[in-house]
Amino acid sequence: MSLLEVTDLAVSFDTEDGEVRAVKQISLAVERGEILALCGESGCGKSVTAMSIPRLLPPETTRISGSIRLDGRELTALSEREIQAIRGRDVSVVFQEPMTSLNPAYSVGFQIVEVLRRHERMSRRAARDRAVELLRLVGIAAPERRVREYPHQLSGGMRQRVMIAMAVACSPKVLIADEPTTALDVTIQAGVLDVFRNLRDRLGTAIILITHDLGVVADIADQVVVMYAGRAVERAPVGELFAAPRHPYTRGLLGALPAAASVGADGRRRLAEIPGLVPAPYSDPDECAFRPRCPRAQSDCASRRPVLSPAGPDHVVACLHPEEVG
Amino acid sequence: MSEFVLEVTDLVKHYHTGGRQVVRAVDGVSLAIRPGEVLGLVGESGSGKSTVGKCVLRLTDPTAGTVRVDGRDITALSRRAMRPVRRDVHMVFQDPFSSLNPRMTIGQIVGEPLRHHRLASGRDAKEQVATMLDRVGLRPELAQRYPHELSGGQRQRVGLARSLILRPKLIVADEPVSALDVSVQASVLNLIADLQQDMGFSCLFITHDLSVVEFLADRIAVMYLGRIVETGPRERIFADPRHPYTQALLSAAPLPDPVRQRERRRVVLSGDPPSPTHPPAGCHFQTRCPVAVDRCRSEPPALLGTDHLTACHLVTAEGDAPLLTKGT
Fold this sequence. Notes:
The complex is a heterodimer of chains A (326) and B (328).
Chain A: E1 4-15, E2 18-30, E3 35-39, H1 46-51, E4 62-70, E5 73-74, H2 80-86, E6 91-94, H3 98-101, H4 108-119, H5 124-137, H6 143-146, H7 156-167, E7 174-178, H8 186-203, E8 206-211, H9 214-220, E9 223-228, E10 231-237, H10 238-243, H11 248-256, E11 262-263, E12 269-270, E13 309-312, E14 315-317
Parallel strand pairs in A: 3-8, 3-9, 6-7, 7-8
Antiparallel strand pairs in A: 1-2, 1-4, 4-5, 9-10, 10-14, 11-12, 13-14
Helix pairs in contact in A: 4-5, 5-7
Chain B: E1 6-16, E2 22-33, E3 38-42, H1 49-56, E4 64-69, E5 72-73, H2 79-82, H3 85-88, E6 89-92, H4 106-116, H5 122-135, H6 152-164, E7 170-174, H7 182-199, E8 202-207, H8 210-216, E9 219-224, E10 227-233, H9 234-239, H10 244-252, H11 258-263, H12 294-298, E11 309-310
Helix pairs in contact in B: 4-5, 4-6, 5-6, 6-7
């Protein structure tokens, strides 16, 4: 049994324009000490998938189906009160924007202490000491001083480290990080990624990393799930995914990176493009969602939707005509 | 015609904040762009790269220094005297959502520079707009549409069409592809490269993304805290980065290749960039530089060299630099 098992998750939102099917169907498994990257472009459903795990989507307008099991316990069946006890203790989240996720009116130490005292029986003093320790763990220099400071006194990189310190305060089993370094400069990003690696190595935290940045995926992920239009289209260990992508969309994403530029017959440098646009999230025809943009599409791609099928050891792909290996 | 389309000399821009503090956004920047050349101006947030772009367009007035366009000093020109210059220099913005007027059609937006400069109107303007839309890969019927009906990539193409319709000599592009998804970014980058080669304009391309300048730029200038620390031909900067900051920057940007990325050695920079209100004495990078010596703390280094220039006391006249990483 995996630490976290998501099975046939579907998430839709009621909007004025109708029902938006953000996640149509996805299954995931994350092991202890594993970093799973969920990647794909805007609107593919990667954030919605992750936020439905600690149930952080507005309940009035969201419809969720499927199963989410953490350590064998079904989370979808829990009451709001029960899920609150899990958030921040067993499953916690680091968001992209550290400035809007921290409360500007309280010192960072106070905010970390609040998390600790909510979930663990701890004296004020012990919680304070633990907050300092946590700031040190995430690589903040002079934590005894920083713990008394307010968010505006910290740089963007430090705020993100504070967010991570809060998120891991209760040693969660699963840490969900939604584009945690996207707003940071690359020299700062490198340090924050080190913090995640460190947590995984020292505490065995399972990390679900949501990112559009394939450089970050290459750097830190163990397993990668590529999403397109609300479904997983490919899943593989990171080395395999980059070396032998089987889904034409995965291959297209890798080819579109500036690092993959090639020189054309006219001597000009070119990037591979993926023509067309992602489909609107209102309908879900019984075909491959990538077919209209796919260079390998054949007539059968329009008549049925491909399901994830084995494409190698620990490698699955949802494509009727996957890329050849090599 | 001048040797340089754009020549910026000793540019300084200080902003005064509410109190007595002065933000030294740009602290003595010189750069030059030849006809048909793309200069990638690279730096992290707060480096002053966007402020350089704004000064070039006179969207803000420099505190000191000069900006020459095609040999002509435009630093002190009045608004009126700037008008003909604005035909030759155009801007492409990062955000394709807020930089297009939502109440104008795409055709009106792209044709606006023609009307503004009284260069074409009526049918002539319509034809030029249609030609330009075609060049940026947009269907002619989009001329009747409004910005909200377009995707992000299409909007960025509209921004390009508007900037290029007067066939300017220089484009200042500030993070034009940073808000786009990678597949859309690829097609816009291909388009910019094609248009630049076909129309021959010069380009100041401002970005934080090293992979984008590696694809597009002929030359690169790296900024740190208001100053250029290194500049040279693209291949030289990537193959032989000399300034410790350039080395750190290149080593920190993750490669989309797990095997190579995990074998690399990274230069880890301690601390955060200092605030531009209190830049450190001497070399601005000295507080984070792993190899700084006493001289770096007192004496600002000059940008030295011929084709590949570096502002670092530890880089010799022959170009020998302290090597912070091996095998990257």
